[in-house]
Amino acid sequence: MESVNTHFVLLNPPGILESILLVLLFIVVVYGSLRSTRHLRSFNKRFTLLSLHLLSILLLILILFNPAYRQENYKEDKKSLAIVVDNSWSMNLPGNSNSDKRIDSLKNYLKNNENFLSKIEEDFYVQYYLFDRELKPSSFESIFSYQPRGSDTRIDKALKSIINISRDDAPDAAILITDGADKEESLDSISEILKDIDFPINTVTPVIEKDINDVWIDEIKSNEVAFLRYPFSVDVTIKSNMNESVPIPVSLYEGDKLVAIKEASINKDSHEANVGFDVTPLSLGRKIYTVSVPVLSGELVTENNQKSFFTDVIINKIRVLHVAGRPSWDVKFLRKALKRNPNVDLVSFFILRDPSDLVFASERELSLIPFPVNEIFSSELGTFDVVIFQDFHFQPYGIFGFHLNNLKDYVTRDGGAFLMIGGSNSFNSGNYGRTSVSDILPVELDYTPKTLSETISSRKFHPDLTDIGKSHPITRIIPNKSKNERSWEEMPELEGLNIVQGLTPSAMTLLSTADGEPVLAVENIGNGKVAGFMSDSSWKWNFAQGGDGNISPLYDKFWNRLFLWFVNDPELSDVKIRTDKPIYNPGDSAIVEITTLSAESIDKNSLPTVTFPNGQKQEIDIESFSDNRYRGEFKVEEGGIYKISIVPAGESEEYQNLTKSETIFIVELPENEIRGPTENSELLKLIANKSGGKYITIRDNLDKLNLDTSKKKTITGYKTEKLWDNPFIFLLIVGMLSSEWVLRRRWGLK
User: Which of 85, 121, 130, 328 has its CA 20 to 30 A from that of 344?
Assistant: First the structure.
């Protein structure tokens, strides 16, 4: 509906400076008029001339302001309304004592007020928006179906975007529906933004509980990279909004394994507590740790009671302690192979003579250094990654039972690795069957001492790959499976075999004789790993397929891969898998990259598999993007720890765990969204009060909002008629000035 309105306007309204000058001019005119008529005795004559002067000057000033009549045409129309709904993840948290999600409560609330929303559509031009880090257009239907995924509640950015929108769409009112969990902005900064808003903003919160008790893990400080067997610190800050000091147990887990528990007492003044842990990683690769605190009575938000973090454990060098009982070709070639490996830090002790040897010189003249038994098997043992006994008899050198017990604890408890290599002083030949070392070896030893002829066979034999050995990464010295088997078939025969009483229940034989006697056996035991090589003639492999200098790459590869297996080095795998990030948020897409040493390792039957936190598994489609490199992508939704694994093509199901490559990552709920406090009603009240709106909760009816349904008048056109552009005005000015001149002459004034 259109209407017409006519009113008087000044087309050139004066500014402040012009107004001051005109007032001064008016005063000067009045003063001049009074002074020029002071000789007239008649008051009426003086008043007449003064009036003519003032009317003339006022009329001239009015003409300078360009007076006019303006006829404006108005159109009455509906006002515009912006409904802005929170799309951040905190809307998935509980908002009442029934633990109902805030988003579910909001959708039910809007559905119950559907008639009111329909009425709003009749009275306003309504535009719907979703916001988290930014404002995005939405629709009425989307509000009822969307799932909050935003990583941050940025009310400040939403308000600024509304201001920018107003330049084009001119909203006359707004409804902001949010829990107010904006961690970035203070009340003062929001107040500054509101100064630029000239329309009412009504606020609605889905949180109806008051004074929500909450304890949360606020911050974890740790190293993203740590070194194997070296401790690193984890500093945890816990906060609470309660006004009492409560002792809280804080637990640290590695995966599902409990690492440590400490008690924290929250200060009632600062509302926080700090706890520190020292963690010593015992294997390489990515480790995921979780800090958790128990859920207290009456606590609604439990999602912030635990927080995970990752540490990539690397190794600078594999520190090896090599104790050899006597010089031999086997000792010499192994020591050279270890020294050629730049990733090995080797500490060797050679026993050149037994205490029982007959000598004719002083101890000082014969000994390079004394054998530091107590230092090695007590304080220094934990500094090594691998300990090797090669043809070493412990008894003559002051090594007692408690020393060997320390070695056992070093493997089973501390995650160390132990290797025994054959010879006349190893296994049964070294009387280890009566020591605690026999508890950690992968082979069974005889408790009763035997003669040398009963414990060692001097015959020649060819070590053959067992079924497990064909798949195990230690003996996969060539990536191609068939070529690897041929290489082992071409290896030289060995001579001399330590006889043992079989394998321990969980050990695996990788190499054996034609009669099935173990040559190389390995085992995971406790937190550590052990291996036994039941021969002292592996040095002959040094000449197999050797190149310049008769150095065999196969000999070096075999021993190097054994040491990589000891420390769980991911480089041991021929197929490597990784993700583009270690931490994701729900709704993100995880990119998986796979690198292989052989193109035969990947086919349609060897797709990577992701294991979700709930235990479900799903294959990931991949495609090649360069030589021996593949990429896949999938979406993560649920928070928790995910595992991705891949088995090279052609591996039998029985041995897939031996060659499987895997990595882990975290899907973490957005930190700013769950770190308390997770609602802010004071902020929402401030926005409503400062802008002229109304604050309500979902317990209140929407009709309580401050919404003016009156029509908005919009000017559709106007017509202006200038008053000075008129002969009557000109004649009036000429008439007043002429009258003043005639009267002054008649009354005898100049």
Answer: 328
